[in-house]
Amino acid sequence: MRSEAMFFCKILSLSLLISGLNPSLAQKKSAGKSTAAKPNIIYIMADDLGYGDVGFNGQQKIKTPNIDRLAGEGIIFNQHYAGTAVCGPSRAALLTGVNTAHAHVRELSAWTVSGKPVDLLDEEVTVAEELKRAGYKTAIIGKWGLEEGAGTGAPNAQGYDYFYGYKTHTEAHHYYPEYIWENGKKITLENNVTAEKKGNYSNDDFTSKAIRFIKDNKSGPFFLYLPYTVPHNEITVPEDSKKPYLNQGWTARPMTAGHYYHDAEGNTTYAGMVSRLDGYVGQILQTLKDQGIDENTVVIFTSDNGPGFDNGFFDSNGPFKGKKFTLYEGGIRVPFAARWPARIKAGSKTSHPSAFWDFLPTACEIAGIKPSAKIDGVSYLPTLLGNAQQPKHDFLYWEINEAQGPAQAIQAGEWKGLAQYNKAFELYHLATDPGETTNVAGQNPAVVKRLKETLIATRTENPEFPLTKRSSHYASEKPVYHIYAGSTHAHTSYTESHGSHLDKAKGATKFMEVDSIGVSHAVNSPLKPDWQKHQGPPSEHFGLAKANGYDFYISTDHSQEAGFHPTSDKNAQWISLHDQASKATDKNFVALAGYEHSENNGPGGRGHINVINSAAYLNALEKDVDIKVAYKWLGNAKSYDNDGPVIASFNHPDVKSYDSFQYRDEKVTDVITLLEVINSNKNIHYEGFLAALNAGWKVSPVAGNDNHGTAAISKQKSRTFVLAESKSKRDILNAMKNRRTYASLDQNIQCQYWVNGQIMGSTLNKPDEFKFDINISDPDVANPANKIRKIEILKDNGVVVESLEASAHSVKWEPVIKDSTSKYFFIRVFSAGDPGSAENHAKPVAWLAPVWTGR
Predict the structure, then answer these.
(1) Where does 561-604 show beta strands of DSSP type E?
(2) Residue 670 CB: number of other CB atoms within 10 A?
(3) For a 10 Å CB count at each end of the chain, is N or C smaller?
(4) Which residues contact 691 (CB under 8 A, 6 or more apart)?
């Protein structure tokens, strides 16, 4: 039994009395049968699906025919509420029959006072435990989210005979997990790569497991709790689910991957996720029919809280105000439909106010038992069966306490009240204003007083969840970034090296054609011996880079060469380059395809820009193509296979070539995020870096071999380093897009720094004080030349603000700088170098990404 004091709705005892006086459903006779078998119960729950995301509630863009059929063949609840506006406590209310005024789990573990995780307690009684008393086989397949690490929340210890899915809510953030849990055992999923979204889509597996459970237990009775994770972040789905929504002329919603490995375009992906969920529901319903148990199985469909993704395009919250994390109707009123062919009249609808904590007593009444523990719920079985004698709540209660501060809501009859942190009490007349558009608190002081008093009277204290504003424990934790080394600039046999492969002594001319395997040749002109062997195909470059310890390698052949002319998206070499990059990529190495665009006889200098992961290239041989044209083209460039963003870099950026970087297209600032400070191990473009920064470009330093052959792959020591969450194509590209890079003449120096808790490459919000946390190390501790000698912090125009002298292989430095005018800071690192060479001793060994101040 629970240790907390529990509040009881007065009407609850009436509900139990009614249940006790009437014969249980399990003993009632039905037409043609002597004694009806106990019905099976399936509870299907979506994750972050809005009230308006389904057709039966008016969705116009997303198709949900199976969910709509379930609703049409049963009953729709128009006023059903989640446990609260976020997943964990909402699910706890569902499973225990206790609302957040009295629950043990009232928020996610990140929001406890102590910082300790919170699970369901051993003494809490779940709906699964209740139904096991009635002879039910029980299973939870999908997102559990109530075993966060306190040691008491394991689903197999909470009444479930079978569990397959995610234990914690954070595990459920990804759709291609590299492990899953089955009955307490961690199962490695060998074919899945989370960051690359490869392998089995987890919710597909949940459906397969659910179908297996149904078939194995068709003799019944069984209870299957099926909490899917769609359409919660991350926004990703297999391509086949997107197809119905392509070419609809929808407004595009570009997505940026980070913690969540989103697909590139959000709206079509989200629609595809909901439709895939609809397909799962169809499979479950068909299985019931195929097994001959359709008539006597109760199937409920709902969502755990309001929508999290939609920004208004889908009207996911329907006619209501608010969304996930808010206690307005849009955050807690959820879609709900129930189907039970043997007992529920098809086409029914009800406005009976009900909530998640009503499910436990409902399930108990269906099974012919009474709840064994104190609860807040009232069975809605009478409404399911069309019985007008439905007991009602005196009121419904919710609370949430995340970043916005504590909030409470109460719904009593026609009134809804909200008490929110640092806001005046709000009152809405739901009967006439379900959209909560008009706060009528000022006109109804007596109602406000009554609702406020009820909020105080009903809530019991929980030491982990007081109604005080606090920060998430996750908020103070820095993301973990791994440092990966590679090269961002290389040329292969697909680059003709500006004609250097031709034997000019024999009259060679530079006109090219592409043969059947995608290799260019001069027309009627002699080639130098072994020119292809010298250059090497992309696959050879990738193989050598992997063998020489590179984590990633980018092939960037010249698009102005005749071999890349004329059609960029169908050019044989271009297609072959992407194919070879894909084949070379695995868990230990990432190969990327790009090209180097060079200005084609346009006005001004001839700047060079590397474009990475683009679906097509801008042909530099076309008339009137120049750098300004390239900027505008990049602003609309599409990624290859929607797998990560398009990234661009300024190559060997001397100031003159780019007219001091004074021309800048705002739209392309988010695409050109890199600048090649180091070229070919010897050319340092520091002046170009400063000029670009001072002109407003937000670029991060990289290093490129610029090799026109394979020999340099093993010889050159310079590297581009990225700070990425994993060694995957998408994460490495995202690190580049988010400017988490540094360029170094040392192939393994480890550098990262934070300013006011934000990682290098970030943009701050105009602070006047900057707290640096700088960590520099070199793993070659046996070599004195690799000791860190000096670290400099520089600001606008390359002015040194602070410097630290050192003589160690590992240095941590935490200076504080007060500044109210500068636009950016960046860091240079010097190593001891060769003590016999004053020149090398004076040179920086690494240039680190800036942090922009926001000014």
Answers:
(1) 590-598
(2) 17
(3) N
(4) 655, 658, 660, 661
